[in-house]
Amino acid sequence: MEKILVTGGAGFLGSHLCDRLVNSGADVLCVDNFFTGSKSNLAHLIGKPNFELMRHDVTFPLYVEVDKIFNLACPASPVHYQHDPVQTTKTSVQGAINMLGLAKRVKARILQASTSEVYGDPEIHPQTEDYWGRVNPIGIRSCYDEGKRCAETLFFDYWRQHKLRIKVIRIFNTYGPRMHPNDGRVVSNFIVQALQNKDITLYGDGRQTRSFCYVDDLIDGFMSMMDSPDHITGPINMGNPGEFSMIELAELTLRLTGSKSKIVFLPLPQDDPRRRQPDIDEAKEKLHWWPKVQLEDGLKETIAYFRSAHDL
Ligand code: NAD
Ligand code: UDP
Ligand code: UDP
Fold this sequence. Notes:
By secondary structure, this protein is α/β, with parallel strands linked by helices. The protein has a domain at 3-175 and 214-241 and 278-292: Rossmann fold. Helix content is 37%, strand content 17%. The protein contains 9 helices and 13 strands. It has helices at 12-23, 78-81, 85-106, 142-162, 186-195, 215-226, 246-257, 281-287, 295-309, and strands spanning 3-7, 27-32, 51-55, 68-71, 109-115, 166-171, 174-175, 200-203, 209-211, 213-214, 236-238, 243-245, 263-266. The strands form 4 sheets. It has a 7-stranded parallel sheet, with helices on both faces. A two-stranded parallel ribbon has the order 7-10. Strand 1 (3-7), helix 1 and strand 2 (27-32) form a beta-alpha-beta unit. Helix 1 crosses helix 6 (215-226). The model has no long low-confidence stretch (mean pLDDT 96). One uridine-5'-diphosphate is lined by residues 78, 173, 184-186, 189, 201-203, 208, 210, 246, 268-269, 272. Residues 61-63, 97-98, 101-102, 104-105 line the site of one uridine-5'-diphosphate (UDP).
């Protein structure tokens, strides 16, 4: 049985990935320090013979024997990663060093959950993988953006220097069940506000855009990338190219929830990118992967989750 390590496996994406891997019959070891993740995301897996959960912080060395590593450990929402920015950089950078050191020792294949934030506030649109980005090195988002950029550097240096088998994916905004209700991300904020008939908080003029990928589609992408031939290292963009303004998202959420909430306009956070949309031609061509779930359908699933799991 293949032994697979998932770091950050108790989080939103990690828990869906653990589900998929456990169901495929792999022997899954999840490590997490529960900073933003929770055991409740994995409650249904605990007790299964091919699943193990370990409390561990990836900024410290980890000695285990595995065949594959998915490195997801890192808070992903601005509210959480800005709460302790020094720890965010340590998690991205020292966490990557430790997981790469582990991969080197046990000759494991290793995948990094990188991010569209490596493009910063981009000058080109949509973003292709060869674009180097426009990132502020000293702003409030830098701990995350630069941490993830440095992690990519480490992955490619371990690949060049130590011939590691690496896989780097740049994930664009992803949403779905098990998003943290208080993590401040736009999809969870709008759904929770709508279900409670509270004001919908639109930042700036609401015309900034994002592209939203449903979690099941992204997990398909994780699997395709990990199982791709060794010469496919990435970085490869993964996301849904459908581009929506935050006003459109607010209106769609109001319609799907049947909410009486009003939209209120609040100041735009510092360094908030104006537009973000993935170019996914590489993923289509090299991995035969592209997202299938429409925003409206994915939102319905996510709304149903928040209604039942959080009693809204
Ligand atoms: P999340 O916050 O739900 O999950 C992150 C997990 O990592 C949590 O369970 C947290 O407790 C754990 N963690 C944090 N620091 C740790 C540490 N030092 N040691 C061990 N565990 C630690 O976020 P998510 O949305 O599931 O994101 C998972 C990964 O995907 C992150 O690396 C994130 O940067 C990346 N990503 C996510 C998105 C998205 O839209 N969700 C977009 C781009 C990239
Ligand atoms: N490391 C780890 N688990 C292992 C092997 C290494 O956590 O199974 C850590 C180790 O603590 C080291 C880091 O990974 O700090 C980088 O390891 P590498 O072998 O690349 O470098 P070195 O040990 O020479 O610093
Ligand atoms: N946003 C918003 N209202 C909210 C939360 C976020 O208008 O309650 C906006 C935010 O300013 C940004 C977009 O929605 O322009 C996406 O924000 P999120 O934090 O989800 O992700 P990121 O900025 O990292 O893409």
